[in-house]
């Protein structure tokens, strides 16, 4: 049966103390507190610096066995190398994230703004991913709008890689499905990473997600509007709406 995985992008925010985390909760216990309420999280700091194996093992031990981590790939792969030489750049990332074991779910590649569509390079990258780790769920968030074409979507579909549906700074992609799962990132209804989604917006996302579940598609949805703890409150509210139907 298809499952909805609803969570946030990151979890250890100092400004969530009060809105979500108790004042007296040590920072190294935040993930455990989070995992009592939500069953998935996106590791977004791996984009900036690869966590140590010890850190990943600590995170794995802090959550239930059915908790799922999505991982955002290093910016070295996506922003500096722009998908070049994946046989050299991707294995160190995957080898490190393997410390999460079976709890590692989808891997997200966020392509940079102002890097225009290059389907030839994406095709080569996807072929390498399939060789490196067959069966892994791969996701691509396409920040430059030149990528948002039928050709890109067809290429992702050929490799069962997900088009990341996202909302950012007033722009919302089409709810395009290119894989046997769906991946959503909601960066905020106002300016980037700000604002709180209202009930009507959450109802609309809940209906879309229920439709995908009926089509036997697993769904991963991460809120990134971390301002004032809005992300975690929105995630909890969306999860409730999905479960209520």
TrEMBL record:
InterPro entries assigned to the protein according to its UniProt record, in alphabetical order: DUF72, UPF0759_sf
One Pfam family per UniProt: DUF72
PANTHER family with a match to the protein in the record: DUF72 DOMAIN-CONTAINING PROTEIN (PTHR30348:SF4), UNCHARACTERIZED PROTEIN YECE (PTHR30348)
Protein name: DUF72 domain-containing protein
